[in-house]
Write a structure and sequence with these properties.
Elements lengths: L1 E5 H7 L14 E8 L6 H9 L2 E6 L2 E6 L7 H12 L4 H9 L2 H8 L1 H14 L6
Antiparallel strand pairs: 1-2, 2-4, 3-4
Helix pairs in contact: 3-6, 5-6
Length: 129
């Protein structure tokens, strides 16, 4: 299950969320994602950062914000969900099928794309990539 929240909502329930950000980080798109109610841990925060997103702790859960803008960063969201849960949503599998290989590799790198393709091939055999 993917939960999304607007940044304004986070400010209301956690006015100190800025303290969880590193210097010069800025949340783009005004949206935060939480995948399968993944618990906040330092390891999960590290995974989120390694995937190119910004981790924010809210009520013991880890929410992920995009730290860039100006292009389609859906692949970053998909890869973060995969690294935190070992799974991706079916609509994300279709996204990977229809988005160009070159673009996805540009956004997340070829190693990360290959991990996602292996996941799609394992769980969604009807989707050819």
């Amino acid at each position: 299950m993917v939960t999304t929240l607007s940044l304004d909502w986070i400010k209301k329930i956690n006015p100190y969320y800025w303290d969880t950000l590193l210097e010069d980080e800025e949340i783009m798109w005004n949206t935060l994602w939480c995948f399968d109610e993944t618990q906040w841990t330092e390891r999960n925060a590290q995974i989120v950062r390694e995937c190119g997103m910004i981790p924010i702790e809210v009520d013991g859960l880890i929410f992920c914000g995009l730290g860039g803008c100006g292009m389609d960063l859906t692949a970053t969201v998909i890869y973060t969900q995969y690294k935190l849960t070992g799974f991706i949503e079916q609509d994300h599998a279709y996204y990977l099928k229809h988005q160009s290989k070159e673009f996805v590799e540009y956004v997340i790198g070829d190693k990360a794309r290959n991990e996602l393709i292996q996941c799609v091939n394992k769980f969604y055999k009807d989707i050819e990539i």
